[in-house]
Amino acid sequence: MTFKLRDGVHTAETDYGIALLDEDHDRYWTLNPTAAVVLRTLLDGGTPSDAVRTLTEEFDVDADSADQDVRELVGELCASGLAEQNGERPPMRQRLRRRPPERNAP
What we know:
- By secondary structure, this protein is an alpha+beta fold.
- It is built from three helices and six strands; from the N terminus they run ββββαααββ.
- The chain has helices spanning 33-43, 48-58, 63-79, and strands at residues 3-5, 9-13, 18-22, 27-31, 83-85, 98-99.
- The strands form two sheets. Strands 2-3-4-6 form a four-stranded antiparallel β-sheet. It has a two-stranded antiparallel ribbon with strand order 1-5.
- The longest helix has 17 residues, at 63-79.
- It is globular, with a radius of gyration of 14 Å.
- The termini are far apart.
- The model is unreliable at 89-95 (pLDDT under 50).
C-alpha cells in the first residue's frame, strides 16, 4: 500500500498529537496520540501491519482493535480528501473532527 498526504496538506506536531493543515481549504484537523502514531508510521513508509504492531507495543490495545482503528483512520483520511492510498483519492467527505480557522476578534 502506498499512502501519502495530498499536496497542500501539512502536518504539525502538537502537545496532544498531530494537526493536519489543509491550506487549499483553509481548515485543520486534529489527530489524537494513537492516530498520530499510525500516521507517522504510514508516512515513514510503513504498512498498516507495521502501524498495528506499533500501536500494540506502545498502547494497551489488542491487535484486532488496533487493526480496525488503522483501517478506519486510513479510510477517513482518504474519504476526507486529505490523503491518497495507492494513488487514488475517494470523493471528499467530512468525517474527521474539523475545526474552522480562527478569526481575529475585532
